[in-house]
Amino acid sequence: MDTAGELKHVWVRRQLQDLVATTMRPGDALLGERQLEEQFGVSRITVRRAISDLVQDGALVRIKGKGTFVSHGLVRSTLHLASFNEDMRAAGFEPSTRVINASTAVPPAAAADHLGLAPGEAAFRVRRLRLANGAPVSVDESWLPPALVPGLLSEDLTGSLYRALGAAGHPVQHAEQTVEAAAAPDETAALLDIEPGAPVLLFRRRSFTGQEDPGTPIEYAVSTYRSDRYQVSMRLGAG
């Protein structure tokens, strides 16, 4: 081992980066810590620190009980109003969508309250798995008022929902959004290919159409993102 004056964990990290970039593909499993320890002639602690650095950088991902794998890429997004497809393309990824459910159902209380629906009144429910470069990133569930977009369920929902709303004459003009840490429930974890209870980012968005303030409620959405594949950044100013 010739570290040329580098700290050992930095040298190992660089070797692993080269390995990932030149001989491995997204989803490939990394060798075990013991094998890497022997290959590089360093301690287990050094190997673990190098791997942890690459996990933190988004180059590798750890899956409990399975091992460490080459990441499909970390999507870095700024907080702004955009569709998933626009967000992914802006970050350099190719988006795709699989529709899990598109039906009429009675929404949960938070969605009904935002959409101004009476108790027991139905809404359109659109639940979709969103992918970037073929890898699952989020599960999105949207609730929409049938009175405003009666033909929505006949549209191609693998594309942009915001584009479909705009084509129906109800473009999303602004939204209110919160984000929090959560644990993935079993069904969502299976769709995202993560362990049940794994940490995820939970976004809740209330969207409005129309130019008036506050506008007409058009969508209530809950999106669950893999925290190892999606990162939110923001620019802050003084004052």
Automatic annotation (TrEMBL):
<dbReference type="GO" id="GO:0003677">
    <property type="term" value="F:DNA binding"/>
</dbReference>
<keyword id="KW-0804">Transcription</keyword>
<dbReference type="InterPro" id="IPR036390">
    <property type="entry name" value="WH_DNA-bd_sf"/>
</dbReference>
<dbReference type="Pfam" id="PF00392">
    <property type="entry name" value="GntR"/>
</dbReference>
<dbReference type="InterPro" id="IPR011663">
    <property type="entry name" value="UTRA"/>
</dbReference>
<feature type="domain" description="HTH gntR-type">
    <location>
        <begin position="6"/>
        <end position="73"/>
    </location>
</feature>
<dbReference type="InterPro" id="IPR036388">
    <property type="entry name" value="WH-like_DNA-bd_sf"/>
</dbReference>
<dbReference type="Pfam" id="PF07702">
    <property type="entry name" value="UTRA"/>
</dbReference>
<dbReference type="InterPro" id="IPR050679">
    <property type="entry name" value="Bact_HTH_transcr_reg"/>
</dbReference>
<dbReference type="InterPro" id="IPR028978">
    <property type="entry name" value="Chorismate_lyase_/UTRA_dom_sf"/>
</dbReference>
<protein>
    <recommendedName>
        <fullName>HTH gntR-type domain-containing protein</fullName>
    </recommendedName>
</protein>
<dbReference type="GO" id="GO:0045892">
    <property type="term" value="P:negative regulation of DNA-templated transcription"/>
</dbReference>
<dbReference type="GO" id="GO:0003700">
    <property type="term" value="F:DNA-binding transcription factor activity"/>
</dbReference>
<dbReference type="InterPro" id="IPR000524">
    <property type="entry name" value="Tscrpt_reg_HTH_GntR"/>
</dbReference>
<keyword id="KW-0238">DNA-binding</keyword>
<keyword id="KW-0805">Transcription regulation</keyword>
